[in-house]
Design goal:
Elements (H helix, E strand, L loop, with lengths): L6 H20 L4 H11 L11 H5 L4 H16 L1
Helix pairs in contact: 1-2, 1-4
Length: 78
């Protein structure tokens, strides 16, 4: 089975990730650890509600979130 997210959601996912990371940093959290906790557990309380970050991150599926992070990582490793 091949997974392909809709193309319009890719830019939205990237914007959401950047906004959530920014909100987590502003509140003094380590965004990497918090997002990893969210991805692994599915528990939205890993993400702060500050700046509506928790609601934003729940708009995208965790697999989409993981895909966007992996694509970004691989793009910069080449």
């Amino acid at each position: 089975m091949k997974f392909e997210p809709p193309k319009e959601n890719v830019n939205e996912a990237k914007e959401i990730i950047l906004n959530v990371f920014s909100s987590l940093e502003e509140k003094g959290y380590d965004p990497i650890n918090q997002v990893i906790g969210y991805i692994l557990s599915g528990d939205p309380t890993y993400i702060t509600s500050y700046n509506n970050a928790r609601s934003m991150i729940r708009k995208i599926e965790r697999d989409e979130l993981l895909e966007e992070l992996l694509k970004s990582y691989l793009k910069y490793e080449k």
